[in-house]
Amino acid sequence: MTVSARPRASVSHLDSYAIEAYNLRKTYRTRKGRETALAGLDLKVPSAGVHGFLGPNGAGKTTTIRMLLGLIRADSGYMRIFDQEVPHGLPLVIGRIGAIVEQPRFFPTFSGRKNLQLLARAMGTPASRVGQVLAEVGLGDRARSKFQTFSLGMKQRLAIAATLLKDPELLIFDEPTNGLDPAGIHEIRATMRNLADRGKAVLVSSHILTEVQQVADTVTIIGRGRLLAEGRVEDILAVGGQSVRVGVNDTPRAAQLLADAGFVVSPAPGRLLSVSSPDQRTRLDPAVITRVLAEYGLYVFELTTVRADLESVFLELTAEEHLGAGEPIAIRSRRRALPGAPTPRRAAAGQR
The whole model's pTM is what? Predict the structure, then answer.
């Protein structure tokens, strides 16, 4: 797995991929000159399960998806879907792909069923599929309701139902939860999980990492058109390790003492400290933190173990890649580590 600008190492090797892309590059001409959208991006999507394609707005997610679907051309690089090179072999596999790239348009005064019946007729799909896909996305009981009466979540589920009419093996959703309330997000998440459990490959792009973490099996994290991390969610979170949130009255002094003891220290919201081990493979013992501080008359009022999530891993990655994350505070060590504390390596979080 890639976790920084250092040489990359994959966390896992999956034998079968629905999508493979290597060294994708794309630049656009703008009024300010040439703007780089993709800078040598790699992407591998397993042939089954939910794969999160993650990154901030402007990272290159939509550009990549449009390339895969033949909507725009890459400047250079290689893409393959189901063993067919894209874009040349796309006509051979397009029938196995369903995608939502932009908000689909339906007739507002027609029912959900009628909209899908018209689409199925245009696609040459049997009419019997309409009822099946409505049931698959949980809209069977609202099939006769007019589209204009649907909530945003229901509209998005109808769009997913439309992509399912031809029973594709690969589904591609670009920011499918944008603008949805928590109930709508839950509905879409459940729909994607159900599709993956039926053996389909689901590629979902998003900048909301916490939502994707709840449904994805594997992820690719990108920033400024570059690969930052890829692999199974549990493997990426394991690399992220854990930290301890520490509350103490004299924060600057506590930070210095903990850094001197070999811990990695950074600020946390609420005038707290985030304390971790320089080596994430080493178990972090909160008792050692309290002992270090108590030795100098500092006593904690909060000591909470925090396990890494995709958002915290992403922030660490973007900080190391200078992609806009806040810089951690710099605390220099002035003495050797205390017994039982980590061996000092660097003075502050983020220094590699």
Answer: 0.74
